Amino acid sequence: MDKFIKKTAVVAPMDRANVDTDAIIPKQFLKSIKRS
C-alpha cells in the first residue's frame, strides 16, 4: 500500500435521505466499485 498523503479540502454535509452517489462522482472516475 502506498503512503497516505494528507489532503486539505472543503466538506459539505448532504441532508438528504437518498443521495445519488453517481451525481457526486460518476462510476467512470472510480478505481473500484466494491461495496464496503
Kindly describe this structure:
The protein is largely without helices or strands and 36 residues long. It contains one helix and no strands. The chain is 11% helix and 0% strand. The longest helix is centred in the middle third of the chain and has 4 residues. It is extended and about 35 Å long. The two termini are 18 Å apart. The model has no long low-confidence stretch (mean pLDDT 82).
Terminal residue distance = 18 Å
Task: Compute the average pLDDT.
Answer: 82
The radius of gyration over CA amounts to 13 Å
String of helices and strands: H
User: Ranges with pLDDT <50 over ≥5 residues?
Assistant: none
Beta-strand residue percentage: under 5%
List the keywords.
11% helix; extended
In short:
By secondary structure, the chain is largely without helices or strands. It is built from 1 helix and no strands.
